[in-house]
Automatic annotation (TrEMBL):
One of its GO terms (cellular component) is basement membrane. CDD domains: EGF, EGF_CA, nidG2, TY. The gene is nid1a. Residues 820-893 form the Thyroglobulin type-1 domain. This is Nidogen 1a. Residues 302-314 have a biased composition (Basic and acidic residues). One of its GO terms (biological process) is epithelial cell differentiation.
């Protein structure tokens, strides 16, 4: 497995000292590896399923006793967090350490420890009685490595296959608690048995933890005069900081609740109950401990004996045997109508059958089926056939697919559902509601055995525990994809993925009422089902710290024309924090409305009444990550619950999650890989349709392979025609700026900037003021604008400074003695070593002497007097590659004030030059991508990669609007590079004396770049070619990252996310006048941006989850938005602020404080830096923009002038330093 960034529960590290915030929503990642701890197989593993241990496995035995430690020298190193360890320490107390453990009194009951620890199950343990033992060994045998690979690859099914090369196996067998006052009676003690396997390869290490059935008999151990809950997890230990050490990351897999310890043997994150897998270290770059991803929970074809039978003894109260009536109850202020329930002769476990008579439900017939297939075939799914009937047409899914014909899914393939939750819910007697505002809802379904998982994010503890009884929020998802019994169909098979579900829940005895409205919006281009949920009403309070248990239940679904109804009463048990329990109930009534094809007779054969059976219901609220999770197994079948034995209908078949179970006679069955997969059904592999048939998408189209299917995209300049398949040439939008049809002021006063589509922006040129459509000249000749010995002359749109008689200079700096320019210094230094002949000085033969113009600047064209070669140079005298000509010819060189033409070879096939307009550039691991902007809207369909650098981790990105170059930092082989966005190979700019370059910013006026290094803890500046490096800030920095420039005003801003004292600072661009702008109420200020139009400095904080802005000169700080997840980079353009949130680019209107759009790249790796690539440079000037400010080397702007600085190497000839101001 290639080391990669993954979201997880704690904070990964980017530098060697402090961690970076990472998303806690593990289950939201691209692999949907969610639902840690959901039900897996019927029984936990046994000791016999451990890796072999004991004398027969040639294990070593740890000395018996309490707090014993053995140092184990490793044949191959273990990677843990960002460290590499050649030895480890095995301890009696249920853990392995990376440094020699100190006395147990320093960590028992005081976790996390000061040393690195892999805690399998840490507590005060004892093996001195001779019964408990701790075995350990190193093992590189094929059998052990095969077992380890199976566990890892099952836990991370969507990653590349892993094949470890070495393993360490540690087994704690029958260990007991350490009890100093014990009588020594070893017979009646509770004992724990568990195993830790550390499996490693060159680039990664994994921890595999196995907890046997009945292997956890105690979950706390005595500590002094009390007890402490045992710990499982991974602690980095102390991290050495800049001034002092601090506690490093601690990824804990249990909580302070003893139930979480007992759950280790009952739950899983690897697909096998009692087995847990974690990636604990990677090289060369480490993000964080990554838990196994439960996308594959294999069940057994031969079920183990189950301790429970399906026997729902709960039932309604019967009257005279003819009719069942719910007891009447009252809601808040009104009487609820009670609906009679038609009674069938009572059978044990027979659920209620409810007749609902609603006259206000809209059941209009779907209009898609008017007409014939000849004109409407494209309305069917690409996996469906169209069939004409006498009164219209209908769509039918082809064999191997299921659905309503409009939307068809591959049989057997797991399904994902994404959506948002909104609404207002009152809890208990609270007078104010808890607001849901676009909370993420994600669901994952293993279709071939009917398991459904639902997770909702951003659930605060004020409402989280009280939502636990409402597994019904995800109940309709389970119904839609329930495991089908013979002759019955689940919801999606009947009505597809577009329907509306409304449910009314009334809680007893308080009569609180909640309305749940869910709209299912169909399948998107990724085959994911989209939905929205709205919650309105009141729910009874469940105290914090409580858990909820929901027993298996059944519901009757009644089907009629475009309407499905169900109703039931459910009980649930609340286990309070003190251990007491309460049994509560609620009444449940729902309607599902949809639009079906009325011409298809086969739909009328659907059983009018079907029973949904739900068991293995699991509900959990994760307060630390603000997540609520629901899991359940769903079957749809006969109302009378006829037993079926075939594994295809029980879900206990063992087929791959991407396979269909085909029933045979009796208990016989076969596994068949779903469409788009190959294999034997037990193991299925994705078919790459794009590779097998390169022309599958047709001309002018790009094929993207996806699991089980593929996706066609049209090339740039093409779009899908009316058939939805053929790519046709698009009508190109008109560039009003180029056509001259814009409404901006004349070109001498204003600039028209094309922003894509039909949009453009008018802005006044430097020296003018206005809205871009009307611009007026500014009189720049204010006091202090020119040197005190110069005269200022205002001109149209600009001004000039001219030294008084007797003084020399450019007017910005005047001196009684003329100061040489860089070109003159260069020229004269060479002429100083010339020979003198009869007719004056003669340079040595073959020597190139630069030519300077009347102002001392380099002439745009330079020639070699001896060879006759000529070439173009930039303003610093550097040769422009590709411009050198031979004797007798002259290159066409442009003035330094212009924009050079694109230079370099044609673009690589995987890189797309940017079209005209303004764009967002963002980094994504080993690539830089762009999203065009049309106005302020992201044109997501036109997003493309600009640059692809495999095996690199690109962090920061900046854009030079003058030369149209993109600059970036990368940390795998620390460097700063650049490339033309018009095409061309990457050019290394700086490759030495860097440790972790992260933030980068460009001064497009002064032609310099600034960057932060979070390991060297400093800020540097250099010319854009990488020369003339100078450190400008190197004190009182701990973790500098984001950095931005304000060139017209000569200011520099940066953020330091030091956990102990985060801050946002500013200085002049020469590093002087440094001061702290913000230090209070900061957490992890990751991103900074400065808006030139509004003069607002804005930042995104991954610790406080806020976006805030201020005017640096006024200090008027204001909050823009709360509740953002885990921002990294941030940039601004007009009314919008755009930020990266690990897996998306999000747009925020900074006036309304609302997220207005989101773009998720197709390649789902982590997003880092982001910047705006302007169509034209922003207006403004500074003192370094003309003739390098009169400086010989570095010109660094200040608000009132500039500073001339020398590079740190101090080897530059003729360098003259001058401080800012005149």
């Amino acid at each position: 497995m290639k080391a990669q960034l993954r979201p997880s529960q704690t904070l990964p590290e980017l530098s060697s000292e402090e961690p970076v915030l990472h998303s806690p929503l593990t289950w939201l990642g691209q692999t949907t590896g969610l639902f840690l701890g959901f039900v897996a197989t019927a029984q936990s593993i046994t000791r016999g399923e451990f890796f072999p241990f004991g004398p027969s496995a040639r294990d070593q035995l740890l000395e018996g006793g309490n707090d014993q430690t053995h140092r184990l020298e490793l044949d191959k190193p273990v990677l843990f967090y960002d460290g590499t360890f050649d030895h480890i320490f095995i301890n009696t107390n249920g853990f392995v350490a990376t440094a020699e453990p100190v006395s147990e009194s320093t960590y028992l009951g005081k976790m996390p420890p000061k040393f690195g620890m892999i805690a399998a199950l840490e507590g005060d343990l004892d093996t001195s009685d001779g019964v408990g033992k701790v075995f350990f060994r190193q093992d590189s045998s094929p059998d052990a490595l095969r077992r380890a690979a199976e566990h890892i690859n099952r836990a991370f099914p969507e990653d590349d296959e892993v094949n470890p090369t070495n393993a360490v196996v540690v087994t704690w067998v029958d260990v007991a608690t350490h009890e100093p006052q014990s009588r020594g009676d070893a017979v009646g003690k509770n004992r724990n048995t568990f195993q830790l396997v550390i499996a490693s390869l060159e680039t990664a290490s994994y921890a595999i933890l196995l907890y046997a059935r009945d292997g956890i008999q105690f979950s706390s151990t005595p500590v002094k005069h009390s007890s402490a809950v045992m710990h499982a997890g991974f602690s980095k230990g102390s991290v050495r900081g800049y001034l002092f050490s601090s506690q490093g990351p601690y990824y804990r897999t249990t909580t302070d609740d003893e139930a979480s310890v007992r759950a280790l043997a009952e739950e899983t994150n690897s697909g096998l109950r009692g087995v847990w897998v974690y990636e604990i270290g990677t090289s060369p770059y480490f993000s964080n401990v990554a838990p196994g991803e439960v996308t594959d929970l294999p069940t057994e074809s031969t079920p183990r004996e189950s301790p429970e039978r399906f026997d729902d003894t709960r039932g309604p109260a019967y009257t005279d045997g003819q009719q069942l009536v719910y007891p009447p109850y009252e809601s808040e202020g009104e009487q609820i109508e009670v609906h009679p329930v038609q009674y069938q002769p009572h059978q044990p476990g027979n659920p209620e059958v409810v007749v609902v008579d609603d006259t206000d439900i809209n059941v209009d017939v779907f209009s898609y089926n008017l007409g014939s297939c000849a004109n409407n075939r494209h309305k069917c799914s690409q996996f469906a056939d169209c069939k004409d009937y006498s009164s219209g047409y209908c769509c039918h899914c082809r064999p191997g697919f299921y659905g309503n014909g409009i939307q068809c899914l591959s049989e057997g393939k797991p399904q994902r559902i994404n959506g948002k939750v909104n609404g207002n819910v009152y809890v208990g007697n609270s007078p104010s509601p808890v607001e849901f505002s676009s909370n993420d809802l994600h669901s994952y379904l293993v279709v071939n055995d009917g398991r459904s998982y639902v997770a909702i994010s951003d659930i605060t503890d004020t409402i989280g525990p009280s939502l636990l009884p409402l597994s019904a929020i995800g109940g309709v998802i389970g119904w839609a994809f329930a495991l089908e019994q013979p002759g019955f169909k689940n919801g999606f098979s009947i009505i597809g993925g577009e329907f509306t579900r409304q449910a009314e829940v009334t809680f007893l005895p308080g009569n609180e009422r909640l309305t749940i409205t869910q709209e299912f919006k169909g399948i998107d281009e990724h085959d994911h089902l989209a939905m929205s949920t709205t919650l309105e009403g009141r729910i009874p309070e469940v105290p914090r710290g409580s858990t909820v248990q929901i027993d298996r239940y059944s519901e009757i679904y009644q089907y009629s024309n475009n309407l499905i109804t169900s109703s039931s009463t459910r009980e649930y048990k609340v286990i309070l924090p003190d251990g007491s329990t309460e049994t509560r109930s609620y009444q449940w009534r729902q309607t599902i409305t949809f639009q079906s094809c009325q011409h298809d007779e086969s739909l009328r054969g659907v059983n009018p009444t079907q029973m949904l059976s739900v068991d293995q219901v699991f509900v959990m609220y994760d307060a630390s990550n603000e997540l609520i999770r629901f899991a359940m197994s769903n079957k749809i079948g006969d109302v009378n619950g006829q037993p079926v034995e075939n594994p295809c209908f029980t879900g206990r078949h063992g087929c791959d999650t991407n396979a269909v179970c085909r029933p045979g006679q009796g208990t016989q069955f076969t596994c068949e890989c779903a469409v788009g997969f190959n294999g034997d059904g037990r193991t299925c592999y994705d078919i790459d349709e794009c590779r097998e048939d390169p022309q599958i998408c047709g001309s002018h189209a790009i094929c993207n392979n996806q699991p089980g299917t593929f996706r066609c995209e049209c090339e740039d300049g093409y779009l899908f025609g009316s058939d939805g398949h053929t790519c046709i040439e698009a009508n190109q939008p008109v560039d009003a700026c180029e056509e001259g049809t814009h409404t901006c002021d004349i070109p001498e006063r204003a600039q028209c900037s094309y922003t894509g589509g039909s949009s453009y922006i008018c802005s006044c040129l430097p020296g003018f003021i206005g809205d871009g459509r009307i611009c007026q000249d500014i009189d720049e000749c204010q006091p202090g604008r020119c040197h005190q010995e110069a005269v200022c002359y205002n001109t149209e749109g600009s001004f000039t400074c001219q030294c008084r008689a007797g003084y020399y200079g450019d007017g910005f700096y005047c001196s009684p003695e003329r100061t040489k320019t860089r070109c003159e210094t260069h020229r004269d230094s060479l002429l100083a070593v010339t020979e003198y002949g009869p007719r004056g000085p003669r340079p040595p033969v073959g020597q190139y002497i630069p030519t300077c113009d009347e102002n001392g600047a380099y002439e745009p064209m330079q020639c070699h007097g001896s060879s006759g070669h000529c070439w173009c140079v930039d303003r610093n005298g550097q040769e422009i590659p590709g411009t050198r000509s031979g004797p007798g010819s002259r290159p066409s060189c442009i003035d330094h004030g212009g924009v050079p033409p694109p230079i370099g070879p044609t673009p690589r096939p995987d890189v797309h030059p940017l079209p005209a307009g303004t764009h967002l550039l963002f980094t994504q691991s080993g690539r830089i991508e762009h999203v065009p902007l049309e106005g302020y809207n992201m044109k997501k369909d036109d997003a493309k990669p600009v640059l692809h650098l495999p095996e690199k981790v690109i962090i920061g990105v900046a854009y030079d609007c003058v030369e149209k170059m993109v600059y970036w930092t990368e940390i795998t082989s620390p460097s700063i590079s650049k490339a033309s966005i018009q095409g061309g190979e990457p050019i290394a700019v700086i490759t030495s004396d860097l440790d972790s370059p992260e933030g980068i910013a460009i001064d497009h006026l002064g032609r310099t770049m600034f960057w932060t290094d979070s390991v060297k803890d400093r800020i540097e500046v250099a010319s854009l070619d990488g020369s003339q490096r100078r450190v400008i800030i190197d004190s009182d920095l701990v973790n500098p990252r984001a950095i931005i420039t304000d060139p017209p005003n000569g200011n520099l801003y940066w953020a330091d996310w030091n956990r102990d004292a985060p801050k946002i600072e500013t200085s002049y661009m020469d590093g002087s006048n440094r001061r702290v702008l913000v230090k209070d109420d900061l957490g992890l200020p990751n991103g900074l941006t400065y808006d030139f139009q509004s003069s607002l400095l804005c930042w995104a904080d991954a610790g406080t989850h806020k976006m805030e802005c201020m005017h640096p000169g006024r200090g008027d700080r204001r909050k823009v938005m709360e509740g953002i997840q885990y921002p990294f980079g941030i940039t601004s353009f007009g009314k919008n602020i755009y930020y990266t949130d690990w897996d998306a680019v999000v747009a925020v209107d900074h006036y309304t404080g609302k997220e207005s759009d989101e773009f998720q790249p197709q390649k789902r790796t982590k997003l880092y830096g982001i910047t705006t690539a302007y169509a034209q440079c922003p207006s403004g000037q500074n003192y370094c923009a003309v003739n390098n400010g009169g400086c010989t080397h570095l010109c660094l702007a200040t608000p009132t002038g500039r500073s001339c600085k020398c590079p740190d190497n101090a080897a530059s000839v003729g360098c003259v330093e001058r401080d800012g101001g005149y």
